[in-house]
Amino acid sequence: MAKKSDRIISKNWERAKQRLRAELGEEVYSSWFGRVELVGVNNGLIQLSVPTKFLQKWLQSHYATNVLETCKNEMADVASLEFMLRGPNTMMNANNELANSMSAANSAAAAPRATGHVAGSPPVTDAPIQPAHFRPTRQKSDGSPLNPRQTFSSFVVSASNRLAFAAAKQIAENLAAYQPKYNPLFFHADVGRGKTHLLQAIAWELKQNSRETKVIYLTAERFMVDFADALRNQAALNFKEKLRGADVLLIDDIQFLKGENNQKEFDHTINALIDSGRQVVVASAMTPAKLKCLDPRMRSRMAGGLVTEIGSFDRELRLRILQQRVQLEAGECPGFIVPDEVMNFLTDKLTKSGRELEGAITRLRAAYQLTAQPVTMQVSMDIVAAIVGGLEPRRVRIDDILRTISQQYAVSRGDLLSARRTRSIVRPRQIGMYLSKQLTSRSLPEIGRRFGGRDHTTVIHAIRKIEELMNADPSLRDEIETLKKDLHN
Predict the structure, then answer these.
(1) Burial class (CB in 10 A: 0-12, 13-18, 19+), 323
(2) How far is 416 from 14, CA to CA, in rounded Å?
(3) Which class is domain 398-488?
(4) Cα–Cα distance between 26 and 30 in angstroms, integer?
(5) Mean local confidence (pLDDT), 390-409
(6) Percent of the chain at pLDDT above 90?
(7) What is the CATH number of domain 4-134?
(8) Alpha-carbon distance 225 to 262, whole Å?
């Protein structure tokens, strides 16, 4: 029968895992922590076992701080952490290890990281790795962990994100003199466009140049977890005081804020900070007006600050992001080189987000380190196929386009096919015809017939009209690019 103390430790470890899952997200947690097992706690040292050298080194380098801090919160006697290899034989087959680690490596580009990097040279060795003790100091400020790579100097600026970058930079520079500007500052964009990067860059800049400034960076998920813990431990007042004592509060992924109590506490905190002249920066996947998780007054307050969108990545920006990431990885992994043809291939095939681009380079580096083989087009094609689910986009039908247009613009299929010519119907109909020409092999007369029996000249007019509007309106161009991606997925 297990000792009572062992059962308590196991129960505390389960709670720690739940906190890690909430903090890091389901995808990252499943990729990196699904095979971590508790060995035990002895004299303040918590020992965790993993099955591979790669996983041991990665967790030690990137998540040791997160895991240790979480364990300290759940187990008062824990002071240090050790990752161990399971079993007496630590020798691994490089190809098997690569297969196990490839899917996880892609998640690492979007995940929060602790300070440090993966050590090692390209050749795979069979020498067992001795587990190292890790005794980091606690962070000075509470909040979600910061990625040391996400600074202003590593942010790639282009036309699509220049305004957001300039606003973030201005805030970081002005806060040193306690002059809040653009309050609140609100970023919105699709996943992987750089919102988190800018929030963390503000935090790093202020920590470096204005150490007396109290900066708190929180994801919406971490906000909910911490608030729930505070209520459960009857420490809600301390939680409120910590947040409202911040000089700068950075909230990420606010669209995930759920629960009436959480939403009310968020509203009170934001109002208290702004009213007292403290800086608030919020990032979201959508504009303030579309945030149903906030009440109308808070949506209005968010919209009353500086709201800036980060647009889609053009080819030049995607290539520059890849080049910067390769340069960074090469600095940590001597000999890692990505040929120009591979760079161009990745640039053309990975168009959705910066996380895809960074994930591809992370996988290429993992393949190079674990196999000691140069980066080739075949390896790159396999990686892209794994990321996007195949190199060939799925076949798009006009019925798919009609359904997507109807959902996007809240126009019924009957109205799209009707003779009605109100603006709210004509524009979506023209976009549908334009997409049908771009994404299907149907002829112009066939497209006209499928859109309510119109002739081919009407289709030509619609296509030209949308092309003119896209050239004059970047937001419409981004909107149509998003529709294309949705139709291909």
Answers:
(1) middle
(2) 53
(3) mainly alpha
(4) 6
(5) 78
(6) 21
(7) 3.30.300.180
(8) 10
Place of tokens 């505390």: 12
| C-alpha closest to that of 367 among 384, 388, 392, 348 | 384
pTM of the model: 0.54
Confidence of residue 362 (pLDDT cuts 50, 70, 90): confident
The CATH number corresponding to 159-309 among 3.40.630.30, 3.40.50.300, 3.40.190.10, 3.40.630.10 equals 3.40.50.300
Sequence-ordered alpha helix ranges (H) in 307-397: 315-332, 340-349, 354-371, 377-388
* The predicted structure's pLDDT at residue 389: 58
Ordered by start, the domain boundaries in the chain are 4-134, 159-309, 315-388, 398-488
The listed CATH number (3.40.50, 1.10.760, 1.10.150, 1.10.8) that belongs to domain 315-388: 1.10.8
Q: Read off the pLDDT of residues 402-450 as tens digits, 9 standing for 90 and up.
A: 988 988 888 888 889 998 888 889 999 999 999 999 888 888 999 999 9
pLDDT at site 213: 81
CB-CB neighbours of 295 under 10 Å:
15
What are the phi and psi torsion angles at 308 (to 5°)?
Answer: -135, 135
CA distances from 258 to 186, 237, 293 (A): 19, 21, 7
Least confident of 131-145, 166-180, 420-434: 131-145
How many Å apart are CA 419 and CA 272, to the nearest integer? 53
